[in-house]
Amino acid sequence: MKKKILVSLFVLVLLAIAGEIFWHWQNQKDVRNINKTLPEGVRVAKSLFGKDYTVVNKIDGYEFKVPKAWEGIEEIEYKDEETILNTRTTGIAIGGLRGSSTVFSLDIYFLSQSEDLLKYSQEIWNFFELEGSLEKIKVGNVEVVKAYEEVHLWGTYVYFWREGNKLYVANNGSEEFIQEIILNGKW
Question: Which structural domain, as residue segments, surrounds residue 151?
């Protein structure tokens, strides 16, 4: 009798584990589809229970959590490397599940020398002929240059910050989203 109970419990535990694995696999379907379009080294990871999304870019050396308000990621595109202002650059563009208000782009400029944050941000701003003024602020402990561009970028915020030889440029309609990404990222 004890043997039957132990075997039954063992079978139930195995079924529960198999069910959990199947549920987790199904829960990750959206991430698997998104990652199909990305180059090796760039991927979206989703937490075990499917609430948190993280963008991991091993090619360019950063990762960050996607704001929960986006409710996930609908699409992500990796921008091929190009040269702007004699500087190698690449980036990503993300569309969240909450529509066009969650379109986010992040560009990385690989600097060959120590550039002044405000000066180089202004050079990029001028190169793209954007309108508006740039100002230095702090986001947590991170020194950033912030701007708002209404004419050419249809009312979006642009934030510039440096980490080592990388200059990051984030663009989104929400300052809160950009600041959340800056603060929770590993740059």
Answer: 37-184
